[in-house]
Amino acid sequence: MTEPVDTVLFDLDDTLCRYRRSVGEVLSIAFEEAGVEPMFDERDYVANYDDYAEQAADIDELRRLCFADLASDRGLDPAAGHAVADAYTATRDQTAVEPLPGAVDAVDALADDHRLAIVTNGAPGMQRAKLSALPFADRFEHVVHAGYDTAAKPAPEPFHHVLDLLDADADRAVHVGNSLSSDVQGAHAAGLRSVWLGDGSTPEPTPTYAVDRLDELLVPPWR
């Protein structure tokens, strides 16, 4: 018999919230401000982001490491990558975020009869700034910054860590996220059920549940 769910964990970026200005927009401004010809794009940055999560003390250092290596890979001076990273940091406002459609209603409703926490692959200072700008920040009992507090998702450690903080059981918990590789795979590795915030495609790995919008959780699929 499947245990009832009393704990819901959430990813943060592109699950609960998104930037008002995209990574691509900020990156374009950063190249211009640094006086450097564009040498990589948003996809390159996003694809390499997690590789640096456990090396860097904060998001600014992560970006400098990542951009320097991307420049070097293209036969350019790593200093050019540093200049773009610094311009990106000066441009990006971490509090300029907005909830995804349905997020406010879903979080408010689930908080009535579930314990809530966040497991995010993101630097602590950056993620705290984002969460502080959202209307439901006080609904979450704990935030685990995977890659900093623990190993990064999809390792099971961040999920186990937050469940220990909550004194909750994996078989009574679900994790909600938009990433099949980090959120769904990570949740399953830790013994949790998963909710994939998807795009209607056929997912692999297969999540326990899938939704197109978070307000579909007003009637939780695990009931």
SS-derived structural category: alpha/beta
Cα Rg: 18 Å
The span between the termini is 13 Å
Mean pLDDT across the residues is 95
> What fold name stands as the CATH topology of the largest domain?
Rossmann fold
Shape: elongated
User: In the CATH classification, which architecture of the largest domain applies?
Assistant: 3-Layer(aba) Sandwich
In the sheet with the most strands, the strands line up as 5-4-1-6-7-8
How would you name the CATH homologous superfamily of the largest domain? HAD superfamily/HAD-like
H-E order: EEHHHHEHEHEHEHEE
Q: Please give the count of helices.
A: 8
The biggest beta sheet reads:
6 strands, parallel
Work out the number of β strands.
8
Number of domains: 2
How big a fraction of the residues is strand? 5-15%
CATH class of the largest domain: Alpha Beta
Report helical residue fraction.
Answer: 25-40%
Low-confidence segments, given as residue ranges, are none
